[in-house]
Amino acid sequence: SWFGAGSGHAWLGDPESANTSLAGVSVWRFTGLNFVLFLGAIQSIPAELYEAAQLDGASRWQQFRHIIAPSIRPVVSLSVILAVSGSLSVFEIPYIMTGGATGTTTFVIQTVKLAFQFNKTGLASAAAVVLLLIIVLITWIQRRLVPDEKVDLV
Q: Does residue 53 fall inside a structural domain?
């Protein structure tokens, strides 16, 4: 209520705001991982490249565009692949926060319910294999769209 959001709003009980709330939690959860990945990638760029760019008169934007962006491209690709495959197989955040209620059920939650609530383990394992194949296919497509290029910085 301090921030004008109102008191007594059922964030997870309202179908309109439940998915937005879960997305916010997911973003917050994986911000640290992405921060560490990008920080490590940027710190692995040799300082000599920045010095040479400054001597050549490159602005900060030009340094980002021609040094940092090409150098962190593999990390960006990895981050996108992890985000997409993670979003397809999301389970714990919606299951813990809502149990799949208010329109927040996912494919994995349905699969777990098939296996343990309805005791249809064969169908649940088939659904898990289908999800695996979908994730592998999408990852393969992503790898083809963004090929690994050797970054020649020196």
A: yes
